[in-house]
Structures are given as structure tokens and as C-alpha cells.
Amino acid sequence: MRVSRFPLFTVKEVPADAEVISHQLMLRAGLIRRLAAGIYTWLPLGLRVLRKVEAVVREEMDRAGALELLMPAVQPAELWHESGRWQKYGPELLRIVDRHQRDFCFGPTHEEVITELFRREIKSYKQLPVNFYQIQTKFRDEVRPRYGVMRAREFLMKDAYSFHLDQASLQEGYQAMYDAYTRIFTRLGLKFRAVLADSGSIGGNRSQEFHVLADSGEDTIAFSTGSDYAANVELAEALFPSSERSLPSEALTRVSTPGVKTIADLCAFLNLPIARTVKAIVVEGVDSQPVLLLIRGDHELNTIKAEKLPQIKTPLTFASPDAIRAAFGAGPGSLGPVGFGGPIIADRTVARMADMAMGANADDWHLTGVNFGRDCPEPEVADLRNVIEGDPSPDDRGTLAIARGIEVGHVFQLGQKYSAAMNAVVLGENGQPATVTMGCYGIGVSRVVAAAIEQNHDKRGIIWPAAMAPFQVALLPLGAARSTSVRETAEAVYQELLTAGMDVLLDDRAARPGVMFADMELIGIPHRLVIGDRNLAAGQLEYRGRCDSDSTLVGRTDIVEWLRQRLITGQGGSI
Amino acid sequence: MRVSRFPLFTVKEVPADAEVISHQLMLRAGLIRRLAAGIYTWLPLGLRVLRKVEAVVREEMDRAGALELLMPAVQPAELWHESGRWQKYGPELLRIVDRHQRDFCFGPTHEEVITELFRREIKSYKQLPVNFYQIQTKFRDEVRPRYGVMRAREFLMKDAYSFHLDQASLQEGYQAMYDAYTRIFTRLGLKFRAVLADSGSIGGNRSQEFHVLADSGEDTIAFSTGSDYAANVELAEALFPSSERSLPSEALTRVSTPGVKTIADLCAFLNLPIARTVKAIVVEGVDSQPVLLLIRGDHELNTIKAEKLPQIKTPLTFASPDAIRAAFGAGPGSLGPVGFGGPIIADRTVARMADMAMGANADDWHLTGVNFGRDCPEPEVADLRNVIEGDPSPDDRGTLAIARGIEVGHVFQLGQKYSAAMNAVVLGENGQPATVTMGCYGIGVSRVVAAAIEQNHDKRGIIWPAAMAPFQVALLPLGAARSTSVRETAEAVYQELLTAGMDVLLDDRAARPGVMFADMELIGIPHRLVIGDRNLAAGQLEYRGRCDSDSTLVGRTDIVEWLRQRLITGQGGSI
Questions:
Q1: Residue B130 contacts A, CB cutoff 8 Å
Q2: Is B555 helix (H, G, I), strand (E, B) or coil?
Q3: Is the Cβ–Cβ distance between A205 and A9 less than 8 Å?
Q4: A-contacting residues in B 16-45 (Cβ below 8 Å)
Q5: CA-CA distances (angstroms) from residue A137 to B38, B58, B137, B374?
Q6: Most buried in the list A61, A175, A409, B233, measured by CB within 10 Å?
């Protein structure tokens, strides 16, 4: 393609209203333009990237045996009433009334529609399992759309739905999708993790999210350096420390600590390492009486884990200052287990600590040398905290690293939520009707593009992974206006590369070199070839990968083979 | 693809609510399923066809230099207010209110959005001309959606918009799109005509519609057998007859015609050929006084042509029975020019007639031997009628044939309707701002599929043109369950054909032969290969094209080359 026939809509200035780097770069590189809040047009360059993602997704879904179809965007309300979601979905569901005053919505997801199709078309267990997918425009009326296509209202999604006779078949189908997703994100050249996740509002049993790792990600995930274990940090299990509790070596000592309210204050005041301190947190128990939770000073309470404990009231409720004072005789900042008669639950790490520092249940007093069993009763023990970097992996293989991630895919075991509500039944092997079991599997196709940029960019612009690059090679003739040989060589090389099957963008604008370099770096073309008079006189072109720190001179006649090698290995092009 | 992994959703019964053959066959062949009125899911087999159409459209649009982008489906009302269409478009525009009570619509077309994009991005005449297109889901809230995807509410459309500095450039761009459309429909293997059309409500100057010819078409078009002239029958010019008017040969005679009200009655009563009779039609003139229109007995008044005459009131209004009796002294059925003092306009054909039979302006009386100039004044003369089969072509090359057509594409010269309303201005060559001139170009991608079926089917099912067939070859092993050699040969041939790059559907269901034959004919696969024990013993397979009346035995080892030839020539596969 020639730039003269494929205009670039690049912009130098950083757009004022774009908060995250992918949004800024997608606007600056001319990939997208905003039409309304959370609603974007994909410009030609952006659409090329989007289509490349789409193609990889489609190939791997097909390879996994899923059947592509195309469901309507506009869905009748009746189906959503059947599933019960017309009420439950809330204002994110974009509701529409047609000219005959019938209710519809712009589909944010298609469980209802596919279940309706299934129950009409599939009659026998012999036709199972089956997996239908589509790549289609969705709309979710986000209350605060932001970050460009990362959290847009209208977006492109691959959604798949599988139907099974039983749980074993569902697990097989789920695994096939898990494997397909792994291939997809691997082929797209992204660093990602499959993360154990809460299944949220879509309901069902097991689910995993696929996260692209990027510092700007909205989710925090913990993953093992020694296995493929990964989980949302809130869900990752914190194991017991490997070492047993030491024997008490200090005497229980009451210390006056005027003005000391926080753990940081306490460490400074006592000149103690933070890992020797314990935080006391008071929540309401099932009987609304105070329950004392103990967490190591440098750890964080995990409210999801705490809420799941049978002793604790749902939803998790922190005790009021009055209730705390009534139960402990002191305010928050000076609390501890010594002398407290109510239930005490210690985090697993705290349960292995000795000679701890903590509050004395008297304002402005703390204790050091606290030991369970000796100074207060042995507490109940539970996993109460968020994992941190360096914790052992819950699968006991390697240690945990913490990273931020952007969710780009999700695999669910839905179970019978929709099939039961909507009566999706087949004739079972035993001749009896059997309600089918479902899985659903989504990839945010447009979000993948933004996530790839969050993960792969530098100060000059985007650095596309090879599989997503809108063009593989940028061909830049310098001073073509005055040099016949530059012009002719550029044209000849362009044709040779096209013939070799490469996706080439020839910058035939006769722009200044600086403009051409900046544009090609901004839009992230992996391989750059510069044709200039001086090198050409020596029979050479100048090659530079988007991530190379230096250029390489390559013989004119070797250039096709040189590039072919680079495209195969990916060397130079991507991070 | 194997049928065991690509289920066919074929249906034997003709669906009760499907009126036209394409709708029936699309349901029966398992291409689509209805979700709601005018809203359809494309099943896997149908989607394959849709994607093949899409691919041809995309290739030819790209070849014509148009730039693909993707605009949002959901559009803000503000832009439609700017163009004035928020009010004008009427209830076909599906209006949406979002959670913040802002007005949007589900885009039925994208003139506003593309003009908004253009005015923000394109600043100079140097960037012109430019043509943007997309292939995208649209919604038009038809009051009575029908005929399946032929007149659906949600549908897939290719829409393109070109921007030009002047009319000459627009005409060039328009011609390029006309040529691209001609290539598209030719490649798709459709019999079609580019038809001069009224530009209707989208506004602008010149426009042509591309019609697929089919007896069931909603539009009637006239086209020349000797040139590429074609027009909606309402717009085709009826030329003067080639022969001059004969001299009067009969005396004016008043005939009592009791009960004769129609031209058919009159011909029967007088035993006259219909071409000797003249119909009198009375409409209101610009001054609301009666104007008498004269049309040959076997011709039809063309109200569009009549309404365009300066003497006639707009909109065309037929005179009331009272006004007619006041002006003519008789009621409809006995009217004529003899004795009428008001304006008379004769169709060009009538103007060349002599010795005519027509009403006598007295109830139950007619005249024969009427001649202009002798019995009544010479009338004004105009083209007032619809053309009929056999009329000379308006371009004087060949004669007209009449056919029915299905509109599948439309090319418009929009002019400045949107660019002026929305201030789409570039810096002109002279340094002054210049309002751009636009063209727009649509193809109903999903409708093309239905139109192709309307044109190409028989009583057994669909007959796909080669370029649209979901699979090229159907491979049917007979009795595979009990014959190892059939099974193994089928598998081997399947692999050979795939290796040769063919799109093959292997029916591995072990169904009865009749079921397999019926399914493959219903879904319209162009080439069928049957593998059976008896022929196989003689080293042969049985080939049959979808349109062949007989099968041919082909040597096992020749089969790939045989099919390759058939695929190249299209022989046997399509009509």
C-alpha cells in the first residue's frame, strides 16, 4: 500500500481528554476517532489491526471446532424476560422501543438468543456437544465510558456458547476453549495470564479470565513464576508460612506510645521491622458482636476472604467506634487480642508469629513480646489477607509475582442458568428429556488492540506484535523528489516485497525524513527500510527494527531474504 | 468440512409464513433463522455465503481505491439534527435514548457520521478525492418487514461515501463505483442491470440502481436488448412511433354503446383492435381546471411523467366525477376530446394515430373515425405512458424488454446536500474554503444472497452461482457404514480435493442416499461427487453438476483434474 492512497491520520499533539497511553496512541496514530462518549470509528489503519486480531481469533475458534454464525444486534425483550435479565441487567442494557412500541435491546451479550436458537434447532443428545460463536458488535451502556476502546460502549466482541449433555462434556469443551484462547493470545504476541476469577453477574460455576499484562491494567493479578497458576489477587490463596512458629523469647511488655496510631508510627517509635507488628481489625460477627481479625502489619485484609468465613456477617461490616470501645476499652490504633474475650481470627501468617508488637487495648499503649497461648488464647486461624509478591504459589510451585492486567477474554462454565430458565432440553441417551449444560466464552476483540498497545509501546509510539501490525514493513525513500535512483529503487523494492507476500507501506508522500520516521514509529510498523542516495551509491539500504537501537546496512540484492528472515524470527520488530 | 462437524439445519417442510421462494429456501436450507420480525440469525451455512459476497465486495472496493473503515452502529442525534434528517427520516429511524437521556439512533445509513469524520480530518483539496467504505450492520425499522432478509429490519450493508472538490471529480468517482459494482455483480455470477433511478429521499443529482433480474422482483425495469440502457419502467422514455400519422380514412361516426364502460368493452362491442382505441383521463391542471390526457387503449398512464408537465398540478390529482361531468357533460367511460374546450395533452403514440375510437362525451355513446385536426384541435403532445415490451429503446439502440428486478445496489451523486448542511469544507486550490461534493454508494450485502436465490433455484432447491456457493463440491459416500472401500476412498478423495484448494463438504453422516442427495441439492452445492461400491469396483466415481440432467462416471484417478476443470469453467454447476 502507498501512503498516497492510504492516508495516515496521525496527530502530533497528545489529545487532552485521553487518560491512558493506548487511548492517546490510538488517537495519535490515527487508528480510531471518537464519535460520542464510548463510541468510536475505526479508521482504515485501525481497522487493519482489528481485522488481524479477528482473523487469528476466527482461525483458532474454527480449529477448535466451533461453528461461526451471526446473531442479530437487536434482541427482543421477551427472551430477556424469560431469563430474568430484563430486570436484573440494569441500565447497562441499552433498551430500545420500536415503531410498534415493542421492547428490544442492543445486545450486550447473546446467551438468550443462542439459547433460543438452540432449543428450536437441537433436539437430540446426538447433536451434542456443539459450540457456536460470532464476532459481532455489542453495546453496553457503561455509566462512565473511558480509556477509548478499552472501556467503550460499542465494541467488537467474539462470543461463543457451548452446549453439553453433562458436566464432563462441559469441562472438555471449556478446556478446548481455554486452549484455543491460549493459542490466540500467544499467536497475537501478547504477554498474558489465564486468571482464576469470580464469575460475577453472568452466573455459573467455574471461570477464568485472560489478562494481558500491563502496568496500566485495572486488575491486579498474582501469578506463579514456577507454574501457570494465576488468579485475581483477591482470590489467590495465601498459604501458611513454611516455617513453624518460634518459641516465645521476649517477655510481654506494656509500652506507652503517645500519638502512635498507625503501624508505620509504631515501627518508627519502637524501631521494629514491620513484619514483627500485627494489625487489629474489628468486624461484626454473625451475631453482630465484634470479631477481632489479626493481620501482619505489612499485609492487607482481603475482605472477600473475610466475608466468606462462617463466623462473619455478610456483607462484611466494620464495627463502629462505639462498639469497638465498648468491647475493647480503647479506640482503633491501640487494639489487640490480649484481654479481649470475644472471637479472635488470626491470618495464617500471624498464627506463625512470635514476640509480636500490637495494641494494648488502652489508648496510647502498645504491647511487645506478645505470644499466642502464653499471653492470650490461641486464635482461630484463616486465610485473611491479600497475597504479596514473593509469597509461595498456592499450587506450591514457585513464588507469586504481582502484576496488573487488562481483561481481554473470559471463559465461563455457565451450567444450567439459561438452559433451565429457557427450557433448553434435548432427548437424552436414556430417551428422557435432559436440560443441557452450557459454557460461554468471550474475547473483547477491540479491547485486545488497546491492551496490546498498553503492553507494547515506547515514547515514540506503538510497537505492534508481528501478528497485529497493520503493515509488516515501512519503506521510506528519502529525497525521492530529486533522486531518480531513490524513486526507482523504492518502486522496485516495493514490488519485490509485495511479490514476496509481505504487507508493505510505501511512504510516497515526499515528506521530510523526520516526518516519515516519526509517523512510522508512531504507528508502530515493525520493520523499516530507508532508501537514501548515499547508501544506494554503495548498493545498500538501511534497515531498522522498531525495537532496534541501531540501523543495519543491507545489500540491495539481499533485502528480500533479509526481511524474510526478520519476519520469520520476529527479530528487531517487537519487544 | 465434514457434515458431522458442520451440522446442516435443513428442513423438509415449506415454512408457512415465508411468502417468497428465497425466504422459503433460506429457511429450508438452514441459512437463516428468524429471531423477531425482520431480524434474522445467520446460521453457519448462511454465514459462509454472506462472507463470500462480502469478500467479493471488499476486493472490488479496495481495487477501486476506496478505504475501508468501520463506523459505529449507534449514532448521536445531534448529527441528524444538523443534516435535518432527525425530523424528516420518520419512524424507519430506530431512535434510542441512552441511560443519560441522550438521543441516539441505530444507523440506517451513515452520511452524517462520515461527513462529521470528513470535516474533522480532511482539510485540503490535496487530500481529495477520497472514498471511505464499510461493511456493517444497519437497522431500518420497516413498517412491514417481509420476505426474510430481502426486506429485513437488521441487515448487512456495504456503504461507501466519496468526497470531491468539484462535479467533474464526483463524476469520475461515481463512474469508478459504477464500474466496481459492475465487476462485483458480474463476479458474483448474477444477471443484473444498472438502472436509471429516481434518487428518492436521499437527495442529490444522478443515481442508478443495480437490479438482480428475477420474476419475483418488486421493481419493474425496462432494458434494451441492443445496449446497456436500463431504467425503472416509470422513468423510461417512450419515444414517438417511427411511422408518421396516417391520413384520415373514416368518417366521424357516433355509435350508441349502452353499458360500454371500459376499453375492453369497447373493443368487444365494436370488434376493433385495442390499438385503435384511446383512453381519456382527466386530471387537474395548475389552475385546478380539468386537463384531458389521451393514452392509447392498451397503454398505461405514467403518473410520474404526467406530474412533471408544467400544465398539471402537483401532486397529480384526478378530477372528481362532478368536475368531469361539469366539463364534459358525461361520466368517465364515455369521454374524449371532441367538443371539449379545455387543454388536451396526447401521448406521443396517440398523436400519431388516425381513425381512433373513443368516448363521445355523452354517457353510453362513443365515436369512431376520430381524427385530430379534422374533428378536434391538434392536442399538445407529451410522453405520458409507461413503456412496454417491444418499444424502441430511448437510446435508439435495440428494443425494450421488461423484466422484474430486485434492487441490490445503488450509486448516488449526492452533491452538496450533507456537506453544505454540515459545513464540510476544505481549503481549495485558490486558497479559499470550498464546500465538498459527495457521492454515496450502497450494496445490500444480505439482500444479495436472497436475490441470488430468487434468480437461481429450481424445485429441488438453491443453485448457487460459483462465487457464492458455501462449498464448491459435495462428496457423498453411499453405504459407507458397511463398505470399507467407500469409506476409505471418500476419505482419500476428500483429502485430495482439500489439498487442491477446493471447498469440499463431505457428508459423513451415514444417512440414506436420498437424504444426502436432497440436502445437497437443497443447499445448492454446485458440484456433487458420489462414491458407491458398484462404480468404485470399476474404478469410477459419479459426478453431477447441480444443473446437469445426467451424471457422468469419472475415473477415480482423474477426479481432481476433472473437478478443477469444472470449477474453472463453471460448467454444470450454475445455470
A1: yes
A2: strand
A3: no
A4: 33, 35-36, 39-44
A5: 18, 19, 9, 72
A6: A409
Q: Identify the domain containing residue B269 by its residue range.
A: 253-382
* Amino acid at residue number A516: M
Are A73 and B73 an interchain contact pair (Cβ–Cβ within 8 Å)? yes
Select from B74, B65, B41 the least CA-distant residue to B441. Answer: B65
| CATH number of the domain residue B298 falls in | 3.90.960.10
Give strand ranges (E) for B481-532.
504-506, 527-531
Mutate to test the interface with A, among B4, B35, B143 (most CBs of A within 10 A): B35
- On whether any CB of chain A is under 8 Å from the CB of B121, the answer is yes
In the structure, what pLDDT confidence band is assigned to residue A58 with cuts at 50, 70 and 90? very high
Residue A202 has pLDDT above 60, yes or no: no
Number of domains observed in the structure of chain A? 3
Question: What ipTM does the predicted assembly reach?
Answer: 0.90
Q: Within a domain: residue B348? A: yes
Beta strands in A57-190 (DSSP E): 67-68, 74-76, 94-97, 103-106, 130-139, 154-164
Strand order in the sheet with A540-545: A504-506, A473-477, A527-531, A540-545, A552-555
pLDDT band, very low/low/confident/very high, at B203 (cuts 50, 70, 90): very low
- Domain annotation covers residue A104: yes
Q: Which of residues 321-380 of B touch A (CB under 8 A)?
A: none
Q: What is the C-alpha to C-alpha distance for residues B29 and B20, in angstroms, rounded to an integer? A: 14
Question: Do B76 and B133 share a domain, yes or no?
Answer: yes
Largest CA distance in chain A: 92
If we measure between CA atoms, which residue out of A95, A112, A113 comes closest to residue A104? A95
Asked whether residue A357 falls in the same domain as residue A502, the answer is: no
Q: Which three cell numbers stand for residue B36?
A: 423477531
A511 touches chain B (CB under 8 A): no
pLDDT in tens, A145-161: 999 999 999 999 999 99
How many angstroms separate the CA atoms of B568 and B560, rounded? 12
Interchain CB contact of B76 with A (< 8 Å): yes
